[in-house]
Design a protein that fits this description.
By secondary structure, the protein is of the alpha/beta class. Helices cover 55% and strands 13% of the residues. The strands form 4 sheets. Strands 2-3-1-4-8 form a 5-stranded parallel sheet. A 5-stranded parallel sheet has the order 10-11-9-12-15.
């Protein structure tokens, strides 16, 4: 077990690069679903024929949220088949005619016929060779589980959502292009081509019908979400359509499965690294590792390594990289970091000499003036140790506000010195990590986090494509 633990960093990097976790998941699922007489031969065939690059996408959401618009654009941009409930109903086969008589999704025979219709469509050559995006299929947990049991397992499930009042407004102003069937709205989505705008026709559903469909969706959404929880990406549709689509596109271009993130988060003092690390940790369950906290913990544990750290802290000198790396090797080797991944921040560090390499490196960019301005707004609660900010995170009460204190490192002289140290290290770090992500830190924290998520997902997609091209060339 000790040897396995020592090798685990290299093992996780290899598994991440070659998508081992996904392959294992795919093989186990196939065995349980197909139950072949000869499992070994079945798995060999599966490994030879599995194409992990063919998109299999499911777009879900309440009525009028924009599912069809997003799905149709994905179909165009990714070159995959767009499959809707209407296109299945329009199929004039005997199977579709029988399915038309069972429109209530809760009926067992209706679910069975829905599954058979979907399987029939997905076995067409375009779906098999180019992939597919299912638009609003399925509508219930029962349908979702039945499709999964039949082998219809999407790699990505995008769930759009918006407030009910906005959905009602979109339903009222819905417009359709009779030539292309594209959907528009005078407020939310308007065509750039005047010729298209002139031929748009109203396509509004009755108010009572919309409310009934919305109520039905809300009653099913929890169970539906749980059926796809491991591949689900929730996207708010309460924003400009272009932003919605970019988030969806970035999501479906990432590799699915159990990716272990290892993120090195860099930036000048007060650029928001700790806050973004906390958001990443909360959402993706990775371990939040603050180098500042790691140093303080080491200095207080009484070990020989901790005593060396304390000497530098007492003198106000930066801890040497070689000492910091020893601390990090100890922390990153622990089970939680190996199994859940990590986000590391608080120290401008070159990890080339470490066996624990990041999967992504992020620079938060902020001007010197803003760094100093933010420092003057920061204060710490001496009772709880929590940090507050006069604008972004004010104290919750006057009692807490009155006892807040400014830490020595937040004084302008200390921040200026830290800025000088960071700028010196940054030049080297940029050459070490030329493919790093750069995010504008002069935004509200939510916007920074959204930009960070999109860039992380996009870069994962580029890395996957690069690896695939390299293997094909070899």
């Amino acid at each position: 077990m000790d040897d396995l633990g020592k090798q685990s960093p290299l093992m996780s990097v290899y598994a991440d690069t070659h998508h081992i976790f996904y392959l294992v998941q795919n093989m186990v699922s196939s065995l349980l679903l197909d139950q072949p007489d000869d499992p070994i031969t079945h798995l060999i065939h599966l490994l030879k024929t599995t194409n992990m690059d063919i998109p299999r996408i499911l777009v879900l959401g309440p009525p009028a949220v924009g599912k069809t618009t997003v799905a149709r654009r994905l179909s165009t941009d990714l070159g995959v088949a767009h499959v809707t409930s209407d296109s299945l109903r329009n199929d004039q086969s005997e199977l579709s005619e029988r399915a038309c008589h069972h429109t209530v999704p809760q009926q067992d025979n209706g679910v069975e016929l829905t599954v058979r219709r979907v399987l029939q469509r997905l076995n067409h050559v375009d779906c098999l060779t180019r992939g597919w995006v299912l638009d609003g299929i399925s509508q219930t947990r029962q349908q979702a589980l039945a499709l999964q049991q039949a082998g219809v397992i999407p790699l990505h499930v995008v769930m759009l959502d918006a407030p009910d009042d906005m959905l009602l407004e979109r339903s009222r102003g819905r417009l359709v292009d009779p030539v292309t069937s594209d959907i528009y709205h005078q407020t939310f989505i308007w065509p750039a081509d005047d010729a298209v705008a002139e031929r748009l026709e109203k396509q509004e559903s009755p108010h009572t019908q919309h409310l009934a469909e919305l109520h039905q969706y809300r009653s099913e959404v929890t169970g539906l979400s749980s059926a796809y929880q491991h591949v689900l990406k929730a996207v708010s549709a309460d924003q400009p359509h272009a932003d919605v689509y970019q988030q969806v596109l970035a999501s479906v271009q990432t590799f699915p499965g159990f990716r272990i993130h290892r993120i090195l988060l860099l930036g000048p003092p007060r650029s928001g690294k700790s806050h973004q690390a906390r958001l990443l940790s909360d959402k993706y369950k990775m371990v939040d590792i603050s180098c500042d906290q790691l140093l303080r913990s080491a200095a207080s544990d009484g070990s020989g390594l901790g005593e060396n750290v304390q000497l530098y802290l007492d003198d106000g000198q930066p801890v040497p990289d070689i000492l910091m790396l020893r601390l990090l090797e100890e922390r990153l080797s622990q089970a939680d970091c190996r199994s859940r991944g990590w986000v590391l921040h608080g120290f401008p560090l070159d990890l080339r000499e470490s066996q624990y390499q990041p999967t992504s490196v992020v620079f938060l960019e902020l001007s010197d003036d803003l760094c100093l301005e933010r420092a003057t707004l920061r204060a710490t609660d001496p009772v709880t140790g929590e940090r507050f900010h006069g604008v972004n995170r004010p104290a919750p009460s006057s009692e807490v506000q009155n006892r807040l204190q400014t830490r020595p490192e937040d004084h302008p002289d200390s921040v200026t010195q830290s800025l000088i140290q960071y700028k010196t290290a940054r030049t080297t770090l940029q050459s070490v990590y030329p493919d790093a992500i750069h995010i504008d830190g002069d935004q509200d924290p939510v916007s920074v986090f959204e930009a960070l998520e999109i860039r992380l997902m996009s870069c994962s997609s580029v890395a996957r494509s690069s690896e695939r091209n390299k293997q094909q060339h070899l």
